[in-house]
Sequence to fold (439 residues):
Amino acid sequence: MNNPAAFNLQVSIGAETLFTLFGFNVTNGLLTGLVGTIIAIVILVYTAVSVKRGTYNRFIGLVQWVFEGLLRQINDIIPDKKLAKKMTPLAITIFFVVMFNYWLSVLPGLDSIRVNGIPVLRSSAADLNFTLALAIITVVTVQMYAVRYLGVFGNIKRYIRNPFKDPVGAFEGALEIIGEFSRGVALALRLFGNSFAGEILLIVILLLTSYVASIVLPFFMLFELFIGFIQAYVFFVLTLIFTSLAVTHEAPTHDEKKKQTA
Amino acid sequence: MQNVTQFAADNNIFSSLGIDWKALVLQIIAFLILVFILGKWVYPWLMKSVDERQAGIEAAAKATAEAEKAAEANKEAVAALLAEARKEANEIIGTAKLESANMISSSEQKAQKAAERIAKDAHEQLEKDVENARKMLYNDTLELVGLATEKIIEKKLDKKTDSELITAVVKTTGVVK
Fold:
């Protein structure tokens, strides 16, 4: 059996630049992300056009089934139907784009197809630029809807309170600010960590199993497909939960609680 | 390719993690455009189909509920009809039993009357036959007595004497009471 240490396995946390276009670095993560996004667009457009024409097959039925399930989830998590409808495009796009991009990490040739020593394929879910972009979009969207539903001051009141009048509330507000940042960072790092670890897992299994890899790897690939679905679903659900929490943040302050008790 | 060990040595944590601000901003803009396009032209069709399917399911559920309600109403109507039919059947059976009992009773009475009439006729016929037999026996006895008397007295009796003699003998012997 081969010694894994002999392979000189090198792992790059960041996506690597394949070439530069007009001064912009095109990375392997960006390129694969583009492919994953195009796949998601093609599947969604194909399904929408087929539905519009009234032609159905099993694949369209499957996409419709998933779409319907996601819609039901949105309506269950966000009680306000109007807000749920507004959040639908963002949440569903996150789900499909994340899922297809994650699934690209199990493509054969992940680490073996190289240009100038750099792997061409790298799932964009394993690129922090992509996951951080999604997390920023989610956090900003949540804040936008919080401002729209609670008002500017109502939203600020969630974070900043008078420490002399309501010291506990002020502490809660500080925790809320930390919570907002940690939510965004956790969203980005969770997806990145899972996808990145998944890619490394596949490479390590490939090296460890050597000639038996073609028998063993499919099981791990299936596992990664499942994890990809789970991660996309988690990102989707967390986006909805954060939005729902932000717009329904009507918990009384410490002072108000005292008044209510009195 | 960067090595993991380079991460700690690198001063810029963002570049160590591969975060490129240009790429980040570009991906944010690209994703927002994607969300806008899909939300504007793709999702409405899918949502419409889901709504239509939901409406179809709700309509089917409503139709099912109505059908169940109608079936329940029909069941009640059928039950009422069956109850009515049973009631009528019971009445018919009761009437039939009563009529048959009456008919049997009437037949029995008729049969009894016929039997009584037959018995009466037979009895009368029997009495007539006995009477006739008595008369015949009486006449035969008279003739035999006449013959016996002629033998005894050895002379021919006339009708008047004969008749008186026979009558006297019969009376004295007590043959005819």
Summary: Chain A is about 70% helix and 5% strand. Chain A has one domain: 4-261. The radius of gyration of chain A is 22 Å.
